[in-house]
Design a protein that fits this description.
By secondary structure, the chain is an alpha/beta fold. The chain has 11 helices and 6 strands.
């Protein structure tokens, strides 16, 4: 595996190195198992064993694609892709999911055909032993691949690991169907092939679902968002942080924005100093290119505190309101600024807006409400 890292010019201890070496191990193990099962399945005329072997052969291809995708995703940003090429990993996972589905469908077709065109089986206890050994190897490989996928933060690698462990389950099904034939002289091989095909198709659909979610745009990772919120709120000069949006451009590559509340009496120079230092820190420690929006607030004024209590009373009595922020009273214009955060269960935003506007008009008839209703992105 060290030789592979040298050929690809990747640090074996880096994220890319972990994915490369794990994929290389998968190529070696799956090639060995695929050859073993195809030979045994052909000699014993078992469609279930041959199906497993073909699935293992497709696993070799998926490992190769993962390896190539990781190398391409690591290319430096250029003028056409200023955020880098990290999303190539998602495209790789998309291709892998399609290959898994195609393999499962082809196996399903062959298994159904075998029901109507049965063949005589020739299975020995030796062939069952070889399949059991391969199952143990696949389970170990799958467990290791999932572990390395989590360590490297690679959803593609985790998907490969899950697929490998599913292959172990498929092998167990094959062993059971073969044992039934040896003991009771009853062939359920074709039905076992159908069950194995269903597992493979299910695995492909799960990988496809997760990959499409990544490409369409998942909500930002909660753990990362919570860490960033803690660091931002702990920064001297920042009173609160809300409305964080995180855009993913590949594993460990993020672009984000967040609104921060600062005292309205601070100067632009004072705000610039601590926001610039925070921006550099977030970029260096979390690889997030963060942009800040600013809300001016005046929490220390009695009338603002009273305003805060009035809005708080309204929010507490409403089921779908998560919270509020950006509350500010402009004494010169008489405008009241407020953002309400609602969950995705709220269907009628206009009704809420009308209700809150009427509520505020009762308490502040001489002021104009500037209301924004929004949902949380992370």
């Amino acid at each position: 595996m060290g030789l592979l890292s040298k050929i690809l010019r990747i640090d074996p201890k880096s994220r890319e190195g972990i994915i490369a070496t794990t994929s290389g191990l998968g190529i070696l193990v799956n090639t060995l198992i695929a050859v073993l099962k195809v030979v045994v399945g052909t000699l014993t005329a078992s469609i279930a064993i041959v199906s497993e072997g073909m699935n293992n052969a497709s696993d070799v291809l998926t490992s190769v694609l993962t390896l190539l995708g990781t190398k391409m995703a690591g290319k430096r940003p250029d003028d056409k892709h200023p955020f880098g090429h990290g999303r190539i990993e998602y495209l790789t996972a998309l291709v892998i999911s399609v290959l898994i589905l195609v393999t499962g469908i082809e196996m399903l077709t062959s298994s159904v055909k075998r029901i109507f065109e049965p063949r005589e089986l020739s299975i020995s206890y030796l062939s069952l032993l070889l399949i059991a050994i391969s199952a143990a190897m696949k389970f170990a490989l799958g467990t290791y691949t999932i572990k390395m996928g989590k360590k490297a933060g690679s959803g593609t690698l985790e998907a490969l690991g899950i697929d490998n462990r599913n292959d172990c389950i498929a092998s167990v099904i094959t062993i059971i169907s073969s044992a039934i034939f040896l003991i009771f002289d009853l062939s359920v091989d074709a039905y076992a092939g159908i069950l194995i095909s269903a597992l493979i198709i299910k695995s492909g659909l799960e990988v496809l679902r997760d990959t499409v979610s990544d490409l369409l745009g998942r909500p930002g990772e909660k753990e990362l968002a919570q860490t960033l919120y803690r660091e931002i709120k702990a920064t001297p000069g920042i009173l609160n942080a809300v409305d964080m949006v995180l855009h993913n451009y590949g594993p460990e590559t993020w672009s984000g924005s967040v609104n921060v509340e600062v005292d309205h009496e601070k100067t632009v120079g004072e705000i610039y100093q601590f926001l610039h230092e925070l921006q550099v820190k977030i970029q260096n420690e979390h690889r997030v290119n963060m942009v800040f929006g600013i809300y001016a607030v005046g929490h220390d004024h009695p009338e603002v505190q009273e305003l805060h209590d009035v809005v708080g009373d309204f929010v507490r009595d409403r089921k779908h309101i998560v919270g509020f922020h950006a509350l500010y009273l402009d004494r010169d214009s008489g405008k009241i600024y407020c953002d309400l955060i609602v969950d995705y269960g709220l269907k009628d935003l206009d009704a809420l807006k009308a209700e809150f506007t009427g509520y505020m008009a009762e308490h502040y008839p001489d002021n104009q409400l500037m209301l924004t209703i929004e949902t949380e992105f992370v």
